[in-house]
Amino acid sequence: MSTATKPKHIGRNISRIRELRGMKQEALAMAIGFSQQTISNIEGSETIDEEKLNIIADALGVSADAIKNYNDETLLNIINNTFNSNDNSTMNAINIQPTFNPLDKIVELYERLVQAEKDKVEYLERLMKGK
């Protein structure tokens, strides 16, 4: 069955939007005066009556149409198209453009490790001479 002819699962859409809002079933239930079990049943239902849908939509801060037409793919497109990183070292959190030469940092780290080993050997030699 293609996604174009597949009926929307309203309960699943409610669940996704609730989760995106960082809201638990209990919190949604308290906000609209239902039990947590009722919310669980609604989220498991493929359809829901308009009155309940409007109440839930208000509690979630979205429109009933937003719940009916919710789509993960559309949401991801919106996020990808509106993502803005204020960090100059990243471009969309993927393309890293360091302002330094990574090899210089590796050499610097290696030199510090060698110096630490030399200091440790010197310290141990002094301890051995002190005995």
From TrEMBL:
Gene3D superfamilies: lambda repressor-like DNA-binding domains (1.10.260.40)
DNA-binding as UniProt keyword: yes
Biological source species: Flavobacterium artemisiae
Keywords: DNA-binding
SMART domains hit by this protein: HTH_XRE
InterPro entries, per database record: Cro/C1-type_HTH, Lambda_DNA-bd_dom_sf
Top-rank taxon, per record: Bacteria
Lineage, broadest ranks: Bacteria, Pseudomonadati, Bacteroidota, Flavobacteriia, Flavobacteriales
Protein name according to UniProt: Helix-turn-helix domain-containing protein
Residues in HTH cro/C1-type domain copies: 14-67
Annotated signal sequence range: none
